[in-house]
Amino acid sequence: MDSVVNIQQDSPVVTLTLNRPEHQNSLTPELLHTLIEAIAIVRQHHGLRAVVLQASGPVFSCGSDVAILAGQSDRVAYADQLLALLHRVMLELIDLPVPLIAAVQGPVSGSAIGLVLVADVVLVTPETSFTAYATTLGLSPTGGWTAILPRLIGQRRTAETLLLERSITSTEAVAWGLANRIAPASHLADEAQALAHQIAAQLPGSIACARRLLWAEREQLAAELERERELFCRQIRSIEADIGIKAFLDRQRNTIPKESAS
Fold this sequence. Notes:
Helices cover about 50% and strands about 15% of the residues. By secondary structure, it is of the alpha/beta class.
């Protein structure tokens, strides 16, 4: 039985694949724990020069599963655990000694953007989009929407995206600096591997120095991610969150075809 995170070790490149396509690769404690374990395995890979992060299925990740969140007897505790794990994953990916390439197909929602924001190079498909869904749900942005995204696309673009709850298209992602290039979905994995091997052919010490300097604000980012977690856990207690989550789930139920709703 496949793991929720698959590891393909093909020296000098290791590929990590989110593998919950039937659940749109939603972020759960199980998946994030497994991803942390996978990163530890990656670090032990002999001759490692680059890492590719990708996902199976048509959706890269829908973020946290709102239905699971809504069903928790203690939403605050669940959210606190989930975000602590996600932010640990993000920081451990930043701390990798080699570059990280994200191959992003389809939508990226909510806190799942964090897995993309910590990559050094990002490839997207024409179908890729990035949506926060924070204000729709009556929640607070998490996963780096405020801690990292403004550094890439600017304060005002980030503000417009969050305050108007609009999606960032693949074309905008490239034009604004969130992604590097667009690839057809059928070629995305191959292009990511080709790029990873091209990076792997460079002198590793120089690459490591460049990456360390590019992520020099790591400790400040960690503090800002912690602030995101604190505000999310505070906001999820609100009446706004109750209303937003219920309305979101009601809309989801109403859009499920009757023959598949049973």
